[in-house]
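Quick one: C-alpha cells for this chain, please?
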Amino acid sequence: MAAQAGDQAPYRVALVAFPGIRAFDVSVITEVWGTDRTDRGAPAFDLRRVAADGTATVPMRGGLALQPDRPLDWLDHADLVVVPGLDDHLTPAPAPVLDALRRAHTRGTTVAALCGGAFTLAQAGLLDGRRAITHWRLTDLLRTHHPRVTVVPDALFIEDDNLWTAAGTAAGIDLCLHLVRLAHGAEAAATIARSMVTAPFRTGTQAQFIEHPTQRTDRDADALATVREHALRHLHEPLTVADLAAGAGMSPRSFARHFTAATGTTPLRWLLDQRIAAAQKLLERTDLPMPEIARRAGFGSEVTMRQHFASRLATSPRAYRAAFTTVSGTGGNSPIAR
C-alpha cells in the first residue's frame, strides 16, 4: 500500500459506519485522516463516512450521531477501509456491510479494525484461520464467539493477509499512525502525531498494558525517562544495555526488568525501534549516503542496517528511500544524531 513519491491524488480512506460503532474510534479515524495538514507537509487525504444507507444518520452513544456521506459502493474506490470499534462488541453488522468488507479484501484493499471492530471482521469471516487482536478484556469473548480466529493474547496491533486489528483505545491511534507510516513514510506519521500531541512510534509488539506500578517503579520512572532521552540524543553511539543501565544507576538485569515493566518492551527492542525510526527519517529527509545514515542511526554499517530493515520492515533502505523520499539535496541538514 506504499504511495510512490510524487503521487498527487488524495489517499482515499473509508470509515465504515453502522449503528453501534464507538464515538472514540470515529474521532480517532477522523483526526488522523480527516484533518487537512498539507500546509505542514502531511499527505492529502480523502476521508469518507460510508454506510449501507448513504444518507441516514448513524446514532452513537452519548447523544452523538454520524452523518454518512457515501454509500457502501464507495469502498470500491478506497485505498484503505477502517472499521471503528463497537459499544456492544457482539453488535451484528448489517449484511451489506459484511458483504462490502469481504469484497474490499478480495480486491486487495487494506482493511483495518480498531478495538472491538475485530468482531465485525470476524462476523464477515475475514479473520477465519488468521491472527487477530482486540482489547485484552475481550480476547476470551472473541475466541468464544469466533473459534476459527487465532486470537493473539497481547499486542498493540497486528496484520495478517492485509487485515489489521488493534487493541483497545490508544492502540487504535497507534495502528492509524502505523498505517500512515506504511503508506506515506515516517515523517508523515510524525507530523500527524505532533499535531495530535501523541507518541509517533509505538510498535505493535508492545504489551497492551503495564502492571500496576510499585512505589519503587514510580521512583525509577524519572531515571528511565532520562535514559531514554539520552539514548535518543546519542543513537549514533554504540549503546548497550549496560550503558543504559549505568545511566539509570542500576545493574543491567534490574534495568532490563524495570524498563520492560515501564514500557512493555525490552531495552534492545526499544533501541532498535528508535534506530530504525531515525534511519527512516534520514532516508526521507536527506540525500546522505547509506553508510552515513547507518552511522548516524547507530547501526554501525550499511549491511547491519539493511538486515534490520529486511527483518522489521520487509524492505531495504534503498527501496524505502525510493518510495518515501520527500526532500532531496538537503545534504545532511537533518538534526538527527550527528
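The radius of gyration is 21 Å.
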